[in-house]
Amino acid sequence: MQFVQQLINGVTIGSFYALVALGYTMVYGVLKMINFAHGDLFMWGAYLGLTLFTLLGATALAGSAWMVVPAAIAVLLVVALAGLLVERVAYRPLRHAGRLAPILSALGVAFLLQSLARNIYGASWRTYPSGIALSGGVTLAPGLRVSAMQILALAAAALLMAALSLFVQRTRVGTAMRAVSIDPVAARLMGIDVDRIISVVFLIGPGLGGVAGLIVALYYGSFDFTLGWTFGLKAFIAAILGGIGNIPGAMLGGMLLGVVETLASGYISPQWKDVIAYAALIGILIARPTGLLGERLAAKV
């Protein structure tokens, strides 16, 4: 039962990685660039959640787990708009400046967002008000238990990833996103507003990342301004592992990385989990440089 319990824990953590990895893989699929500021936008989701929970503490929802619903919606909208602002200010003017300039700009935005969080909220660890995180859980078998927060995290991650997949595959905007991913010049000649599609990508990716930041902070109970760097790096690895630019690959890579880390921590040592995870990444990339699901153009977004 311990192995199954570790698998459940690993899938839960992997779902967080997958949600953040989707932002990386969407931007890369359309612009062929890495949005290194994405992890710090994810971190701001946790801090905005702290502010919103404090404000909601003065309402009828005070001390209730229902506070999560309006807070999650507000975080999604605010972080999505912040992602759009980052694209307009830091990326769009450099879109035709080669590969190096946008990367340096992304790193600059990442450090800016991290410094703002540290200066505004402080460098110490922060915790959410008590009573928000769900308590209890479900015992599936002796020695096998799924907490209420794990159920919430898995359900939220599955819902958001399914909604994104349906959006990309079944809507006109999603079709336009896939067209821009394959050939932006041809897409523009076909009448697609490429700038608008890129804006949509920078709305959706950070928005999902912001909600993931809120859920992660609820799940772990405490966080600080380095949260974006820690999870952002792991999510970036997950995106590469699955095949960057590939949405199902980002999901698979996140889940796989979470399971490998958890099993390594449970059966070997928590100190070795990162070593084993990175070694697995190197091994997979040596065997398959494009990732587990590859970088097929038709699947990139």
UniProtKB/TrEMBL annotation:
InterPro entries: ABC_transp_permease (IPR001851), BCAA_transport_permease (IPR052157)
Any one GO CC term of the record: plasma membrane
Coiled coil feature spans: none
Domain of life assignment: Bacteria
Keywords from the named record: Amino-acid transport, Cell inner membrane, Cell membrane, Membrane, Transmembrane, Transmembrane helix, Transport
Keyword match Membrane: yes
GO BP of this protein: D-alanine transmembrane transport; L-alanine transport; L-isoleucine import across plasma membrane
Localization terms from the record: Cell membrane
Transmembrane segments: 6-29, 41-61, 67-86, 98-117, 148-168, 197-220
Topology of the protein relative to the lipid bilayer: Multi-pass membrane protein
PANTHER family: BRANCHED-CHAIN AMINO ACID TRANSPORT SYSTEM PERMEASE PROTEIN LIVH, HIGH-AFFINITY BRANCHED-CHAIN AMINO ACID TRANSPORT SYSTEM PERMEASE PROTEIN LIVH
Name of the protein this chain belongs to: Branched-chain amino acid ABC transporter permease
Source species of the chain: Eiseniibacteriota bacterium
Lineage, opening ranks: Bacteria, Candidatus Eiseniibacteriota
